[in-house]
TrEMBL record, chains A, B:
<dbReference type="InterPro" id="IPR010059">
    <property type="entry name" value="Uridine_phosphorylase_euk"/>
</dbReference>
<dbReference type="InterPro" id="IPR035994">
    <property type="entry name" value="Nucleoside_phosphorylase_sf"/>
</dbReference>
<feature type="domain" description="Nucleoside phosphorylase">
    <location>
        <begin position="55"/>
        <end position="305"/>
    </location>
</feature>
<feature type="binding site">
    <location>
        <begin position="139"/>
        <end position="142"/>
    </location>
    <ligand>
        <name>phosphate</name>
    </ligand>
</feature>
<feature type="binding site">
    <location>
        <position position="220"/>
    </location>
    <ligand>
        <name>substrate</name>
    </ligand>
</feature>
<feature type="binding site">
    <location>
        <position position="218"/>
    </location>
    <ligand>
        <name>substrate</name>
    </ligand>
</feature>
<dbReference type="GO" id="GO:0004850">
    <property type="term" value="F:uridine phosphorylase activity"/>
</dbReference>
<dbReference type="InterPro" id="IPR018016">
    <property type="entry name" value="Nucleoside_phosphorylase_CS"/>
</dbReference>
<dbReference type="GO" id="GO:0005829">
    <property type="term" value="C:cytosol"/>
</dbReference>
<dbReference type="Pfam" id="PF01048">
    <property type="entry name" value="PNP_UDP_1"/>
</dbReference>
<protein>
    <recommendedName>
        <fullName>Uridine phosphorylase</fullName>
        <ecNumber>2.4.2.3</ecNumber>
    </recommendedName>
</protein>
<feature type="binding site">
    <location>
        <position position="95"/>
    </location>
    <ligand>
        <name>phosphate</name>
    </ligand>
</feature>
<dbReference type="GO" id="GO:0006218">
    <property type="term" value="P:uridine catabolic process"/>
</dbReference>
<dbReference type="GO" id="GO:0009166">
    <property type="term" value="P:nucleotide catabolic process"/>
</dbReference>
<keyword id="KW-0328">Glycosyltransferase</keyword>
<comment type="function">
    <text>Catalyzes the reversible phosphorylytic cleavage of uridine to uracil and ribose-1-phosphate which can then be utilized as carbon and energy sources or in the rescue of pyrimidine bases for nucleotide synthesis. Shows broad substrate specificity and can also accept deoxyuridine and other analogous compounds.</text>
</comment>
<comment type="similarity">
    <text>Belongs to the PNP/UDP phosphorylase family.</text>
</comment>
C-alpha cells in the first residue's frame, strides 16, 4: 500500500504543470479562434477565466446524461447548493452541450467517431487557449458487451478497430494515416481500484472495439441492411472475444488517438447494456438501462473525489 | 415543356406503390422491433397509424433546425394553424429529434457518417413497418464550399469519399465492403428547377465530398492536430475541385448508399457556409449563417409543395 502511494506521488509530480499542448503549429498564429461547434470564440469569451481551473473533463454521447453527471459530481464534491442550476455553456448551438462545476467539465459528443472528433478538436483547443494543465479526460459511455453480464462496466485497456487492430486509421489530404490508440495504463488501474472501493457492480479492464456503424459494423442482424447469418455473426464476435475485446462502442479509438497525440491522460469507462453473444436489441426496461448508465458516472465521480482529496 | 411533363408522369407512375423495402431478411421474423435510438417500438407504437402516410422525409444534422423546418413546411403546405405545436416524436431519447406534419417527416441525424447511419437504419425500418410507399428522402444540410460564393446551395450529383471515389467503404464482420453512392438524377434536376422557380440564391449541381472528420479530414489548418501546410491544403482542395467536387460535408456517402440499397429516391441539398479555398473558420455573423441555413429548407419546401400540387 505504501509503495502504491509513492508511485502515485511520482506520477503526480510527473504530471505537475503539464500544459495542454496542440499538435498544430498554425493555431498560435491565429488572431481569433472560433470554436464553431461550441459557439465559443477567443474574441468573445475569456477562456482562461472560464476554464483555466479545469482538471477533469468527462465526455459522453448524450447531452442530458452529461447534465445529470455534472449535477451528480457537484453533489459528490460538496460544490452543490440548493437551487443551483448548471447552464449549458454552449447554449448558442445544439451540436454539443457543456457544463462545469469547480475543476470538472462535462461535455456531450454525440454518436460516432466523426462527431466526437469535432468535439475533441475544439475541446483540446479550448483547454490550450485557457492555459489548462494536468488535465485528465475520461469518456463515460454505453456499449454492447461480449460475454459479460449486462450492467458490467468495462475500463478500456486498448481501443481496437473492427479488424481487432489497436489503431485509428483516417484519411488526411487523401492519404491513409494510422495513429496508435494508447490509453493511460496507470489511470485504468486507478479507476479499477475505485470500482473495488465502491463494490457496487462488476468492473473489468478489457479491450474495446470501436466501429463506424452500430448495425452491420457491429455484426447486428436487426438493421435495415444485413447480408450475413447468425452463424457468421457469432464467429465474428467470438473472434473479437478471443482478441481480448469485452465491449463494442463507437468513439474510443479516435478519443484515445487524439488525447494521446496531445499529451492528455485519458481513459474510457463504458457500461454494457446487453450481451451481444445473446442478442442485438436493447430491450431492457427503461429503469434498468437508466441505472446501468449511472454506473460509469458513479465510478468516475468517485475517482474525481478521491483524486481531489487532500493526501 | 410538354415533354418534360410527360416524363414526370412516367416517373410518377414508375414510383406508384413502390413500397419501402429492407435489405435484410431477418427483420421479418422479429416479433418486436425496438428502434432504440428513436425510443420507439413496434410493440408500443402503431407505426402504420403514426407514419403510414409519410411521402417525404427530410433529414438534417441539428435538432432545432429540423423543428424550424417542420414549422416552415406546415405553413408552406397550408397545414399550420395558430398555436399549433410540433411535439418531438422521439421525446423518450435525446439521440435524435423527429417531427411530422401531413406527409412530411423531419428527423435530425447529428454529425458524421456513423450518426446518420444509425438514424437511417432505424428510419428505413420505421418506414417499412409503417407500410410506406413512394417515399422521397432529402438531406438538407450545411457544408464547406469549394470555389463558390458562401451561401450558394449545392445539389449533390455524386457523393465521393476523401480520395474522390464515388464509393462508401465500410467494415462488415471485419471485411471491407464497398457500396455505390448513387443518387436520383431526376430528383436532382427537379430540385434544380425548383431553385430556378424561387430565384433567390445560387444553386448548382455538383459532386460532394463526404469525410470522416471536419478538421484534418477536410484539410483544415485550424484543428488541434495538423501536420501539413497551407500549400498542401490548397493542392488537395484544388484536386477536389478538378474532380467536380463543389462542397464538403460528413454524411452524404452513407446516406446515398443506404437509400439506394433500400430503393428510396434520395437527394442531398446543402448550403455552403464558407469558401474553403479562402479559409477554414466559419466566422460569418450569426444572422448571416442563420439565413444561409434556411436556403435548403426553402428549396425543399418549395419542391414538396410543388410535388403535392394537383396536376
Amino acid at each position: 500500500m505504501a509503495a502504491t502511494g509513492t508511485e502515485t506521488k511520482d506520477l503526480d509530480s510527473h504530471h505537475k504543470n503539464r500544459l495542454v499542448q496542440l499538435s498544430n503549429p498554425h493555431v498560435a498564429n491565429m488572431k481569433e479562434d472560433v470554436l464553431y461547434h461550441f459557439s465559443l470564440s477567443t474574441s468573445t469569451h475569456d477562456f482562461p477565466a472560464m476554464f483555466g481551473d479545469v482538471k477533469f473533463v468527462c465526455v459522453g454521447g448524450s447531452p442530458s446524461r452529461m447534465l445529470t453527471f455534472i449535477k451528480y459530481v457537484a453533489k459528490e464534491l460538496g460544490l452543490s447548493h440548493p437551487g443551483d442550476e448548471y447552464p449549458n455553456i454552449c447554449s448558442g448551438t445544439d451540436r454539443y452541450a457543456m457544463y462545469k462545476v469547480g475543476p470538472v467539465l462535462s461535455v456531450s459528443h454525440g454518436m460516432g467517431i466523426p462527431s466526437i472528433a469535432i468535439m475533441l478538436h475544439e475541446l483540446i483547443k479550448l483547454l490550450f487557449h485557457a492555459g489548462c494543465s494536468n488535465v485528465t479526460v475520461i469518456r463515460i459511455g454505453t456499449s454492447g458487451g461480449i460475454g459479460l453480464e449486462p450492467g458490467s462496466v468495462v475500463i478500456t485497456r486498448q481501443a481496437m478497430d473492427a479488424c481487432f487492430n489497436p489503431e485509428f486509421e483516417h484519411i488526411v489530404l487523401g492519404k491513409r494515416v494510422v495513429r496508435s490508440t494508447d490509453l493511460d495504463e496507470g489511470l485504468a488501474q486507478e479507476l479499477l481500484h475505485c470500482s473495488t472501493d465502491l463494490s457496487e457492480f462488476t468492473t473489468v479492464v478489457g479491450n474495446t472495439m470501436c466501429t463506424l456503424d452500430f448495425y452491420e459494423g457491429q455484426g447486428r442482424l436487426d438493421g435495415a441492411l444485413c447480408t450475413y447469418t447468425e452463424k457468421d455473426k457469432q464467429a465474428y464476435l467470438q473472434a473479437a472475444h478471443a482478441a481480448g475485446i469485452r465491449n463494442i462502442e463507437m468513439e474510443s479509438s479516435v478519443f484515445a488517438a487524439m488525447c494521446s497525440a496531445c499529451g492528455l491522460r485519458a481513459a474510457v469507462v463504458c457500461v454494457t447494456l446487453l450481451d451481444r453473444l445473446l442478442g442485438d436489441q436493447i430491450s431492457s426496461p427503461h429503469e434498468v438501462l437508466a441505472e446501468y448508465q449511472q454506473r460509469p458516472q458513479r465510478l468516475v465521480g468517485h475517482f474525481i473525489k478521491k483524486s481531489l482529496a487532500p493526501a
